[in-house]
Amino acid sequence: MAWATPNRERRVLKAGHSSIAVTLPKPWAEAMNLRPGDLIVFDQNEDGTLYLKPAPPPGTVTAGVPYLVQAHSFDAPGVLERLVSGAYRVGYDAIEIRAEVPLSPERLEELQQTARRLLGVSVVAQDPNRVVLQNFVDPSKYELPQLVQRMKMILVALIEESEALLHGGRPKRSTSLAEETNRVLALLVRQLSLASRDWSLARRIGSPDARQLLEWRVVVYALEELGTLFGEVLRELQDGVGRPSADDTPLPELLVQLKASLKRVVEDLMHPSLPDASESVTECAQLGASARASARKLKVSARKTGAYPAMIALGRGADCLAFLSRIALDRAVSSGTGTVLDASA
Question: Which residue, 15, 53, 131, 297, shows the most beta carbons closer than 10 Å to its own?
Answer without folding.
Answer: 131
